[in-house]
Amino acid sequence: MSENPEQYAFSGESPDNYEQKCLCVLVLDVSSSMNGKPMEELNQGLKDFQREVQEDFVAAQRIEVAVVTFGSRADLIQEPALTSNFEMPNLRTNGSTKLVDGVRLAINVAEERKEWYKSTGQTYYRPWIMLISDGKPDKDQDVTGLAEEIETKVNNKGFLFYAVGVEGYNHKKLAEISHSNTPPLPLKGLAFTELFKWLSASIAMVSKSSEGQMLSLPSPAGWAQIQI
Amino acid sequence: MNKKAIIAQASVTGSAHLQSGTPCQDSSAVWFSSDGEFLITIVSDGAGSCSHSHVGSAFVVKKTVDILKERIEKNKWFYNRVLPDAVQWKKELFFIFKAVKVGIQQIAEEVKTDYKAFSCTIMLAVSTRYGMAYAHIGDGRAAIRTENEEWKAAINPMKGEEANQTVFITSELWDESISSNYFDANVINESISAVALLTDGCERASFEMLSFDEETGKYYDPNKPFKPFFEPNYQNLFKMKWAGFSQDKINRLWAGFLENGNAKLRAETDDKTMILAVFEPENTNEKTI
User: Fold this and answer.
1) Is the ipTM here above 0.90?
2) Helix and strand tally (H, E) in chain B?
3) What's the pTM?
4) Which of A179, B33, B160, B237 is least buried, going by the fewest C-beta atoms within 10 A?
């Protein structure tokens, strides 16, 4: 009896499972100082970010994005959603720098989304909150209180917090807010596109990780000024 | 003497591990009793964050088989169609896992490394045609094929709050008490025609594990082996055996399938390990399978 070896290959279909979610909340400074070229580049970077996520088959089904902006006030301009389900908003500058209000709103968004994941039985990865600012917070903003909240919540694995300073930013204030393990990184020029490429690649890696895998995220050298 | 079960066994390195130069951290082991009455199968998934977890998982599967063989012999389990008493089995496995944990601590001391660096899960099954005893700590899935040709889950995986968390044999969570929620061992008294054990890298491709219930508006884990995944391979394994394929050849084909067998398997970035064991009916007739 002649046998075709191919006849004996293993084969099997896979089920359709919903994907576990990884939320990324962007907290973006839209104060007047971002007017002009910085805002143009930021808007372009956001669109590139959305495209990069969508081009990754698995990441596109797992990464949810929310957008909070802050100028004279903080607004949630995009509720958490898969990138295929919304059009990236075009940001405009607006007033002063209610940075603390913006970050607090982002924390609320992340916490509420986690509660929703839990209450609906969905599995999820730890959310990311990414702050991008070029200024210093208004005087009425409770930087110390926010710094304490972030330190505690990051230590308790509530979320991951990263801050990026755009030229002219106040490093001291941003460093105070950031968790001690992830100090703020200054953006190289207006390299928003490179920053968002890095962000999509990094979250894509996290969203496919397993069992507390130690990840070597891509180097931020393409967009950050790093002292060697 | 019974015919031995036919097995396919393989571990393949996940694409994320290949990219980062991390070794495959999964391990597995299979051991047959000399009379073919039962077989021991074990899979272990090394923690991605731990530097020595590939060493840990390799040690755990070997050490566990060694101890388990002795204890089965001493208790005269699985001979003459006698399954262990579930309470006795659980007690025995609790102490076996503790002994394996001590073994990890010893090898960690020898290389002066924190033993948590060897963290890994463990899932084992001792299978016969008439039933199965299992034990596990951590995630991964197990499936059995019943007499009426249905596939059903044999265990519930232990998952953490976040999608990439679980419990390891090196954890303090499970060994404080035999009734810990993080240690599970039991006996299934039911005719079995096949068993599959897999690490979590294979679960999305082979199990229904995140579905949406429209009535409640909630997502849930049905923990249901996907028959269109398992059944063709159950059949294929018989065909390969009857075509005279060597164990090595079957395992190579199985590794190729886990690596690249369909879109879900291809898209998975984690290490993937699966053992599929099928029992030939006692009066085998090719046409009846």
Assistant:
1) no
2) 7, 14
3) 0.83
4) B160
